[in-house]
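Hello Y.,

Per our agreement to keep a running log of every chain we model this quarter, I'm adding this entry. I've kept the format consistent with earlier entries: sequence first, then predicted structure.
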Amino acid sequence: MCCVGGSAGASAAVMDSQSVKGADTVGADSRGYDANKKINGRKRFVVTDTLGLLMAVMVRPAGVQDRAGATTMLLGLYLSGGCRVVFAD
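Predicted structure for the entry above:
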């Protein structure tokens, strides 16, 4: 996970994930299959503040469920002293 910082003292954030197709050059160990979207590739989890500035980014294989990625992201956001409210899609 990469904590970018965003705005200092942000009180609210938005979290979402996207599945992205992996190229042939991407190693098989970092790719997975997202059965919901039928995509073989990676999934990126993004947390932004209400202004759209990045607070945290994490890239995992697409086979990782959203709740597993969200748990990791929320823990990292909590430990970095992030925000008070997170809206998730």
